[in-house]
Design goal:
This protein is globular. 39% of the residues are buried. It has two domains: 206 residues, Rossmann fold (3-Layer(aba) Sandwich); 151 residues, Glycogen Phosphorylase B (Rossmann fold, 3-Layer(aba) Sandwich), CATH 3.40.50.2000. An eight-stranded mixed β-sheet has the order 4-3-2-6-7-8-9-16. Strands 12-11-10-13-14-15 form a six-stranded parallel β-sheet, sandwiched between helices. By secondary structure, it is of the alpha/beta class. Helix content is 44%, strand content 14%. The chain is built from 16 helices and 16 strands.
Length: 456
């Protein structure tokens, strides 16, 4: 059964999608026939380039099976040597935990889920509790090179294969690995960060929706256990399956908490723009990729109402451009307050963000749906008050120590922001957790099976 809040969210996302489609049509209509022809020719040329590239990669993999992949020349993409870690011997904990890092290794990215994967895997390796691996040519290669670890990594009896990474990006490569683990009497555990592309498909590219559905059918429901990064994310899976009449009776379902590392946050030079922003009138901070579900439109509407009332407050967005935000981007860049009382920093450093957190009147989170809510943890670390949408996952992270506003209600948000301008609230109380502690909890659950619940 769809709740009133879910109906409200879907209507909001439908409206954004419709506006986005109209904007794309307007832009396409404004192009001359010659411009459209050139754009089509460019797209076809790019498709041909990537087709030839993939073919060359496949040929190379056939003749040179030990080659890690097409981007091996990129240092971020190479497997790391043991000399870069503090462990002297290969992990020997039993049963072995094979920690999947396939998507992170291939992408070379280091933010979002990739950051989680890297931190958990590194700590597991250094503790001698896990063996990070990546799928290559139907087998597993070790992420860390080590003289005691063979290549490829042979699956042994009792191994636990933990799909720590974004396994939905390479769905078809996992079933053979899962079958091999099962044949050896082992178990396969999948980590769940969210299922938002399934619950709110209009907030994501269609290609991602398809990958998530295949991932749910071929990996999640075929696994021996699911570990989510929050209780809210775990319950969203339960609700989604129940709403669609999908049976997964008895499947272990648990959750663990992500860690945080602020050791490098103060390193590096501050940008002059951030120094100016942090030293002037009060400002509200929003952190996160710009995408439909983040509710940036709601924050902007709330600020516009405060500005109309004469409030001297600013709004600072820190985050890259995501998908489906052409209309919002045009609205921001064309706003009369842009770069006056409205700022968008898409390349802020860790040091910049740390300074912005420390001096903000409050962090504002207007998301309609999230898997965890890491900015709340960051805000708590820096002593920054939090104003957030009243949704389950934010309540799970911040409890009653944040200020909440009604979902998608800019008037409600404007009221909380006005209160914060008059009297700065207290920062949320969130118990700190290191990545080492986070890894220990996840690995313990995967190895010992201490899941909090099971699917009906």
């Amino acid at each position: 059964m769809i709740t009133p809040d879910e109906q409200k969210i879907r209507a909001y996302l439908d409206d954004l999608q419709e506006l986005e489609a109209k904007e794309q049509a307007r832009r396409a209509g404004g192009q001359s026939p010659l411009s459209r022809l050139r754009r089509l020719a460019k797209l076809r040329a790019m498709e041909l380039y990537w087709t030839i590239g993939r073919a060359a990669t496949n040929i190379g993999a056939f003749f040179f099976p030990d080659h890690i992949g097409p981007r091996a020349k990129n240092p971020k993409w190479r497997r790391r040597d043991i000399s870069q870690t503090s462990v002297a011997t290969a992990p020997k904990a039993s049963p072995r935990l094979l920690l999947d890092m396939t998507s992170t290794l291939r992408s070379g990215k280091a933010t979002g889920i990739q950051r989680v994967v890297r931190e958990i895997a590194r700590n597991a390796w250094e503790m001698g509790e896990g063996l990070p691996v990546a799928i290559h040519n139907g087998g597993l290669l070790p992420y860390y090179r080590h003289p005691e670890i063979g290549e490829p990594v042979a699956i042994e009896p009792g191994d636990v294969f933990v799909m720590l990474d974004a396994s939905w990006n390479h769905v078809d490569e996992y079933p053979p690995i899962l079958d091999s683990v099962k044949a050896k009497g082992g178990r396969s555990i999948v980590c769940l960060y969210d299922i938002l592309p399934l619950t709110y498909p209009n907030a994501f590219p269609p290609s991602l929706q398809g990958r998530f559905q295949a991932w749910l059918d071929k990996i999640v429901l075929k696994s021996d256990g699911v570990i989510a990064d929050s209780r809210a994310a775990a319950e969203s899976l339960r609700d989604h399956l129940a709403a669609r009449g999908v049976s997964a009776s008895g499947l272990p379902l648990g959750w663990w908490r992500l860690g945080a590392d602020f050791s490098n946050a103060t390193q590096g030079a501050l940008s002059s723009e951030v120094r100016i922003i942090a030293g002037e009138a009060p400002y509200f901070l929003a952190v996160g990729t710009m995408e439909p579900r983040k509710g940036y439109q709601v924050i902007l509407e709330a600020l516009e109402k405060l500005w109309a009332q004469g409030a001297d407050a600013r709004f600072v967005i820190v985050g890259g451009r995501g998908w489906g935000v052409s209309v919002l981007e045009a609205r921001l860049r064309g706003h009369p307050e842009f770069n006056r009382r409205l700022f968008w920093l898409d390349r802020a450093s860790d040091a910049d963000l740390a300074l912005l957190y420390r001096n903000a009147r409050a962090l504002v989170l207007a998301s309609v749906a999230e898997g965890f809510g890491l900015p709340i943890v960051e805000a708590a670390h820096y002593g920054t008050p939090v104003i957030a949408t009243d949704i389950a996952v934010f309540r799970e992270v911040a409890g009653d120590s944040a200020s909440y506003f009604t979902l998608l209600d800019s008037d409600s948000l404007a009221g909380r922001m006005k209160e914060a301008l008059a009297d700065k609230p207290e920062a949320p109380v969130v118990a700190p957790m290191s990545w080492r502690e986070s890894a220990t909890r996840l690995l313990g659950m995967a190895r010992d099976g201490g899941f909090q619940s099971r699917l009906d």
